[in-house]
Amino acid sequence: MKRLKNKTREIVWVLIIVMVMLLFFSGPSIGKGFQETIIQAQTELGQPILEIDGGTLIYITETNEKTVYEFKVKNFNTMEQLNETNLEYYIEILGLTDKRFLIKVFKENEELKLNENKTEYFKLQNNEKQEDNFKIEIEFNENTNIEEMQQNIEVKIYAKQVQ
Length: 163
Prior knowledge:
The protein is an alpha+beta fold.
């Protein structure tokens, strides 16, 4: 009987040792595991399109003391490709140092206020064709000999992509 108890104990101990060894070599861990995922994607960036049509050089002379410069800002090009991104833009008038010139800017025949010779921001959407018509009236407002004056005025349009 003692022998049977000893044999049973030996078998239990051998089984326990084998199970511990199996657990040790089988790889389960009580530590935290981690997984690394790598995602690769290729995509094209949206192409911004901002076309400006119109306008040639204009001159103010003694017979023509008031002149108009007209241009259009569009979100599509001559091949009818539509802008793929939303844009905001504003107009700045540079070189306007002589206060004898009076300048008015109109969008769709509505006068715009200039702040430090800049307009407010305008939006160009990406989902439909849009064409904004602008007109700049430049007038010499004093009785001075215009031939003595030489002034270059530059119109610039700045755009940025928005969400």
